Amino acid sequence: MSGNAEEREAALTELRKRLEDALAHTGLTKAQLAARAHRSRTTVHEAFKDGGRVPSGATVAALAGTLGLSAEQKRELLQLRRAAAGERAGPVRVWDEELGKPIAQWDPHDLEVHPAGTPTIAASLGALAQRALPGYVHRAHDRVLADAVREAAGGRSRMLVLVGSSSTGKTRACWEAVQPLAAYGWRLWHPYDPTSVEAPLPDLHRVAPRTVIWLNEAQHYLGHSRVGERIAAALHTLLTDADRGPVLVLGTLWLEYANSYMALPGPEAPDPHRRVRKLLTGRTLTVPDAFDEEALEAASVLAQGGDRFMADALTRAHTHRRVTQDLAGAPELVRRYDHGIPPVKALLEVAMDARRLGVGLHLPQAFLIDAATDYLTDDDYDELTEDRLKAAFAALAHPVHGKQAPRPMRRPPGSPAPTRTPTPAAGPVFRLADYLKQHGRMTRQRFCPPASFWHAAHTHLTDPENLRNLAKAAENRYRLQWAHHLRWQAADTGSIEALCELAHLRERAGDQEGAETLYRQAADAGDTHALAHLVQQRQAAGDSEGADALARQAADAGTTYALRKLAQLREAAGDRRSADALARRAADAGDAYALVILAQLRKEAGDLESAEALARHAADTGGATQHLGNWWRYGLDPDGSPTPPWS
């Protein structure tokens, strides 16, 4: 203690006089002052009453702030309070001038709220809009947060830590929750300088009333082996000291950290998180990974209202419902691609090209490595080593805001392989993140993959649908030899469609024998359309008997297309009786187009009434638009009145 009793009493008298003068200047009553300063009436009356105890520094600071005193006047009042309490001279604690700044002056990105959206979307919105946040969707945990904020605004100190996986919207939820406090002059303090461990501990005793303490990723504060327990103890003291409140402590934690802190140790085991566990008990709130139906509907409303970020995210997240992860992860994934080392960029570009040209989700590592060769410059290729490749894949598999790009896909032992992949790819397979797939589709649409890409696809890919898609892509880019080889590879892996495509190409080239051989292979594998092509070829070769047999085989297999095709060929050959019989068989089996052939045959036979009836029947049997075209073809007006050209 310092100063004698008279000096202390004089300082206290002067303190009360200045408070009285400031109160008179505002015109407030002491009850009103207590309410606005979030202090009890007893505490405020004690501060003004002669003979009362010396008020705490936090109370003096709260009263001075509510009375609108300047920073210098606050310092003078605090110096008088210290003298009245007999405390030794030292730095004056001007809480709300020292820690944090008004909430309205913070940029949410400086509080570690993730930027949102892909760079393509952000660029289209302009430089200023890139700093904007997407619209916010309120969920169940937001209501609990709002209750805590209301209690803090009403004068009760509160703490809430949001627990969940990466990028589930925890930090954004905290930011949205504190916005109402800005209107009441609350400040926000984000302790991070010089480090998260060193920043809070020395200053927690200086936190002013009406301050939000922002502990994003609270494991950096509470989980430290040396000071985590001390920080927890200081926070507990702050929250339970009525004279220092109200304050609001908001934090976020990944689930694994929360589980670690809350776990009880064994009987003989050390308890490294005892105080942290007591602090968090009753003060955690779980944030779900995915949006529920109500949240998805609200997000759709935002998207329909012009929120480009939300609309972009919903194009990918409508099935897995991890909307916040999509919003947060896209920028970082694309940044990793743009600034990655050459092997990383090359592997990602291979994956992007493969996905945009029709390859499925699972990309074999061997394919990615071999295909990347021509994506590297000569110098980069010369520096490529096994260690650098391993490092590249390690970087790609590292989580980004809860995502991976690409991520390894593994199936448990005994699980069936995908139905479209008769021979699973050897070695690990990867999956490109949806964000990068979309980014690659937009930025690389005019790029034709180099030879190493097509060679690696031919060598390593085994899914026939993937090979067919790449064959088509190669053909569209005039890589005709690769298109041919990829189709053969697809056919060799079991694609009947690829066999038919190869047969059609042989047919166009005039190689009828080669085409027929391939069509027969497809037909033997069960493709009925191949039978129809064989019917046409046999008919064109004058083999009516062979054509009939194939048509019947096709009909027995459940298709009427071959019967109809044969009927058209018989009609063209002048054999109308056979054509009529074949068309009738097809029509009886439900082929509406065969009815059109029958109508044509009846018309040419002079039976106009039957022709009209058959044409109308064709129009009533499915595919109405096309059948209406057939009506007009046979001279029927849209209103149904017959105007046959042959009448």
Radius of gyration: 39 Å
Count up the helices: 34
| Average predicted confidence as pLDDT | 76
Count of beta strands: 9
Region (Disordered): 400-427
Protein name: Helix-turn-helix transcriptional regulator
Domain HTH cro/C1-type: 11-74
Biased composition (Pro residues): 411-421
Give a brief rundown of this model:
This protein is mainly alpha-helical.
Task: Characterize the structure shown.
The strands form two sheets. Strands 1-3-4-5-2-6 form a six-stranded mixed beta sheet, with helices on both faces. A three-stranded antiparallel beta sheet has the order 7-9-8. It is mainly alpha-helical. It folds into four domains: 5-95, lambda repressor-like DNA-binding domains (434 Repressor (Amino-terminal Domain), Orthogonal Bundle), CATH 1.10.260.40; 101-286, 3-Layer(aba) Sandwich (Rossmann fold); 313-412 and 424-472, no CATH class; 591-647, no CATH class. Helix 10 links the parallel strand 3 and strand 4. The model is unreliable at 91-97, 122-130, 398-424 and 623-647 (pLDDT under 50). It is elongated. The chain starts with a helix and ends in a 14-residue tail after the last helix. 57% of the residues lie in helices and 5% in strands.
